[in-house]
Amino acid sequence: MTRPALIRPAPLRLGDTIGVCTPSFPAHVAFREKYLHGIRQIEQMGFRVLEGSLTRQATAQGYRSGTPRERAVELAELFADRSVRCIITTIGGTCASSLIPYLDFAQIRQNAKIFCGYSDITSLHLALLAHAGLSTFYGPAVMPSFGEWPEVLPETAQSFLDATGSKQVVERELVAPARYSRHMRDAKGDAWKAVPREWLPNPGPSVVYPGTVEAPCIVANLNTLVTAAGTDYFPELAGRILVIEEMNALLSEEERDLRHLERLGVFDRIAGLVIGKPEVYSNESAPFEYADLVREIVPQRPGVPVVMEVDVGHTVPILTLAQETRLRLIAPGAGPTRWFVLEAMVHD
């Protein structure tokens, strides 16, 4: 398949309209108060908000917000609406891939704009990249990220604004936040705002294999990436820094997914591997940890760095990265790991 040339969307400015869509799980129904708080936070950041046609109805079909066609229509309408400069998803889920057969990628390419979300939204990131050539943004979603209490975390907000708002081609470092949290609180009741979040000091990325590389990145949820194997939207990974992350990192499931990528030859082609902090982690009583599993499956190659515990994906705070953005990753055998953005993620 011949893939279209890469395009980057126009930057987001204060006062612009952000559209909200729900391509998968109906968090705007299940966690209504926190979702509406997230909408208000986006508005307080200086943006207007327009809910998509399906999201505005606040209806649900159990695990999904509507039929595949209804969800695709909502997304297409937001891309076609010239008043909307950015689209952010409500949350992830399990079935965003169902939209793909109903999307007109040529029309989306003609109306290219910022598209942001994470987790199950990986399916749409990869499809938009493969079929529309659009570089999308792996970053915060409305309910879990902007809905943080009492306000969106400054580290999350600033990374989003840095990624979506600056067209200056200036090298900048992706600095690990000083703190992070794995404290999960119930969002159906009041715990998400009544129970103070517990924080841990953030030591930054850890090195599995050292190396230094400059290459474009592909960012994906690991489980969702594996489900894309064999499809026409599975990404080109040769020469890329692959950034993967997971919500529930049970080692049994991580072994299965990493081994699947290994058998696909992914680890023989990539220029580097970056693994995000999982929201939930368990070694399931195994006498080894995640890094040991990575060493067991991912071969060490000269100059190809492999690092873990980065702040991308199901992390609090969350850093924002656009697909195919050129990065420099420096992972020495001793000393701190550093990574840099080498190009603007938006373009007029």
Which labels suit this protein?
six-stranded mixed beta sheet, 13 helices, single chain, eight-stranded mixed beta sheet, alpha/beta, about 20% strand, about 350 residues
Overall description:
The chain is α/β, with parallel strands linked by helices and 348 residues long. It is built from 13 helices and 18 strands. Strands 6-18-17-10-11-13-15-9 form an 8-stranded mixed sheet. It has a 6-stranded mixed sheet with strand order 2-1-3-4-5-16, sandwiched between helices. A two-stranded antiparallel ribbon has the order 7-8. The longest helix has 13 residues. It is globular, with a radius of gyration of 19 Å.
End-to-end C-alpha gap:
28 Å
Shape: globular
Query: Strand arrangement, largest sheet?
Result: 6-18-17-10-11-13-15-9
**Gyration radius, to the nearest Å?**
19 Å
- The secondary-structure class comes to alpha/beta
Helix content class: 25-40%
Mean pLDDT: 97
Q: Stretches where pLDDT falls below 50 for ≥5 residues?
A: none
Biggest β-sheet strands, sense, barrel: 8 strands, mixed
Q: Beta-strand level of the residues, as a percent range? A: 15-25%
Count of DSSP helices?
13
Number of strands: 18
